[in-house]
Model the fold of this input.
Amino acid sequence: MPNPFSKLLSGTWLLAIGESFEAVPVAGQTSPVAAGGTFDAATFVSVAAGSGGASALLNRNRNRNRNRNRNRNRNRNRTTTDAATPLGGETPDILLPWREIDRLHQLRDFWVDLPLDLPRSPAALFEQTQGLLVKQAALQTEAETIRRAEILREQELELSGYLRPLGLTQMGGYPQTVTLFLILARLCEEIGLRYKDRYDAPRPTTVNPRLSSFIPVPVHPSYPSNHAFLSYTIAFVFARVAPEHPGIAELFLSGRRIAENREWAGVHYPQDTAAGRALARMMTPIFEVVLEDQMLAAREEWV
Done:
């Protein structure tokens, strides 16, 4: 018997928000709902975000109209929201973006050996930890209360630092833009880990035992910083999606703060942050090819 969901799933992303899933049309395709039909099959429920949407249970009538009538124009140009307050709603997730991963690997020769600077010598890295010790002490002061909260929130993928500069104060709305950022997160993670493995640079707490990290030290190498790589990639890519958006400068500043927060946390050197930015700049033309359809779909939400 044919799978009644195969046609639906082949033309959609499952955007997981909390314990439910929203079907977002794949760029360049139209979902049954968008075409005026209905999801007679189901809404996707009872599976935690990131737990593997392919095995999600399908429940026929629950939450059928969830999030279908969002006002997509609200807060478009607001850039003055409180940076200390996370956006409303949970950070969503998507299924593994296998199409984009496949395209990325078709272009592997163009990005697998980019000319990043070599990491510094052990002595130079130790010197950089002296600045991290100063930040470590300052982080405990009342003046850095907001930064401490940001560092804890940004340990995992967290989109508010990228959406707030664009005027979005709720996690819902603009699903193609959110999907674009989530796909970038998956691609940047893979690319960044490849470069980390190549350079195998020690973490600051290894080079200088006097340094105590504010958060658990990741198990993979330090160079380059994946937080910096993703943050600047999102800024560079969105600047091509909607170059006229008034929040782009703020998006770059927010991305820089997210990246530098990892230095304040004691898990990255300044060299890692700089390498992440350089990698983002060099990868952006590749992402424009890999994500052309998704970028165009995201742009439709802003014009």
